[in-house]
Write a structure and sequence with these properties.
This protein has 12 helices and 10 strands. By secondary structure, the chain is of the alpha/beta class. The strands form 2 sheets. A 6-stranded parallel beta sheet has the order 4-3-1-2-9-10, with helices on both faces. Strands 6-5-7-8 form a 4-stranded parallel beta sheet, with helices on both faces. The structure holds D-glutamic acid. D-glutamic acid binds next to helix 3.
């Protein structure tokens, strides 16, 4: 038993989809979450910079006594896997768990949508090609999604969101992909809009949920579960906005404080 919190970090609200998934399995875990909103979006930054930011984010949550850390960000998971693997605290990423999940559901064609930096890294494409041999992989960068979601455009009826979804996903709908990977943790927040556009056809694999499941399995196996459901949220952006939006995505007000922390220099 270990009552220390699980650490999560992301460029903003997206990692909340991993918190939500984890809470469904282990509701009593304590959580420390860092949303680096001031430096969002990560997905348009160069790899060198992302690797340094990954290290800073890890240090931030580790300094809050995290027993393990989930890099709840597809962009970091795809551009800095070695930084995560070498970290002295046990880390989890959202890429490898997602690809393992995809391999369990054989599909002739798999779509993967993620940020520009994530798709440009080729990490999902490479891992899927080896885990799902024979499947055709269609990877699409969706750079407008994260800024839209962070500015409150997440409702499936939202016009700007609907236009962006149609623009990015048209080739995948045309192709009739059998499975779709939401390779950016923010995309779980617009799953309804994506589903509405693509229809019930494709099997949807949400990166955040896959990683949360693997983390929970590990905690159980290692007998490291423990906590009282406490949560601390830190954001480098506006604490007020974070509180408002996190309540929408968690389905309730955040338990405990949402603190503003200064933006880190990279
Ligand atoms: N949630 C992050 C990811 O999974 C978003 C990155 C961004 O800020 O562009 O990639």
């Amino acid at each position: 038993m270990d009552n220390r919190p699980i650490g999560f970090f992301d460029s903003g609200l997206g990692g909340l989809t991993a918190v939500r998934a984890l809470r469904r399995i282990l509701p009593d875990e304590n959580i420390i979450y860092f949303g680096d909103t001031a430096r969002m979006p990560y997905g348009s930054r160069p790899t060198d910079m992302l690797r340094k930011m990954a290290r800073q984010d890890l240090d931030f949550v580790a300094s809050r006594d995290a027993k393990c850390i989930l890099a709840a960000c597809g962009t970091v998971s795809s551009t800095a896997p070695d930084v995560l693997a070498a970290y002295p605290v046990r880390t989890f990423d959202v890429l490898s768990s997602t690809v393992r999940e995809a391999a369990k559901h054989p599909a002739r064609s798999i779509g993967v949508i993620a940020t520009a930096a994530c798709i440009a890294s080729g990490a999902f494409q490479k891992a899927l090609a080896s885990a799902c041999p024979g499947a055709e992989i269609a990877a699409v960068a969706c750079p407008a999604f994260v800024p839209l979601i962070e500015s409150g455009h997440y409702d499936p009826d939202d016009e700007a969101l609907r236009a962006a979804v149609a623009e990015y996903l048209a080739p995948l709908r045309e192709k009739g992909v059998e499975a779709l990977i939401l390779g950016c943790t923010h995309y779980g927040l617009i799953e309804a809009a994506i589903r509405r556009y693509l229809g019930e056809g494709p099997y949807m694999i949400e990166a955040a949920a896959c990683a949360a499941r693997e983390l929970a399995d590990w905690l159980k196996r290692e007998k490291l579960c423990g906590g009282r459901g406490e949560e601390r949220f830190c954001t480098s952006g506006s604490a007020e906005d974070f509180t408002r939006f996190s309540a929408v995505f968690l389905g309730r007000a955040p338990r405990g404080e949402v603190a503003h922390v200064p933006e880190m220099e990279v």
